[in-house]
Amino acid sequence: MEPYLDPYLVYSPKRGKEGYLVTSPEYSLKQSLSYGLEKVYEIAHVYRSGEKGSLHTREFLMLEFYQVGINEFELMEICIELFDYLEKNFRQIGFKKESCKKISILDLFQSHLGIGLSQEELHSFLSKNFKDFQDHAYRYEDLFFLVFLNFIEKNLPKEPVFLYHYPAELASLAKIEGNFARRFEIYWNQVELGNAFYELNDPIVQRQRFQAEQELRKELGKEVFSIDEKFLSCLKNLPECSGIAIGLDRLFMIFMQEESLAHISPYFIKEVE
Questions:
Q1: Inter-helix orientation angle 119-129/140-147, to 10°
Q2: What's the predicted TM-score (pTM) here?
Q3: Which of 67, 226, 228, 263 is deepest in the core (most CB within 10 A)?
């Protein structure tokens, strides 16, 4: 359903049926939690169209796991334990637990750029500092990511950093508390490594978000997918939980101390100009 994520369309041999290659095992794992499981994980091959660059492949391995009864900050600690385990049992690269940083998105924008997260502040900053900025009606998420990708991401610390409390407009499948989405992303060596949510379990709110995403996909000229009613119906039985998706190829790249997936992934394809 995500407006900026496009799956591959596939057909049966005689084109009698069509379907899509999976972009994430998220929905099925959450359904497992709604049936009573408390800890679930999957290592899956996932596929996404339009992925380009040294840190992207169209097919990659994803580790996705969920645990009942923890919030997003407790999930951060589990991730740190995972990295520490890899340091001790896989390959030593100098990782230390105490090197991990936790920074709210608001603090990040204020400390790096001296601005807050309002649409007006983002728009004003871009109009003054981004040469390709055109003064027209931007969506909030477009303004946010123009600032983040061009002025923040490249200046993040090399050590693992957990960025939390995203703007409510970027909640996706996470709970909202106050003006913030209870989600976080992990960056390591300035590479996005994982995306996590304190999971929304309100089917009414989630339906509203899906409907908004349908409208946005329509505006963007993309295929509009039907709402997964089976997934929505499971949310009323989804316990309080948190989960994360981690790109295993990127994690392996970091532990092998490489700068590109070209040296790591068998699925890497160099784009021909």
A1: 50
A2: 0.94
A3: 67
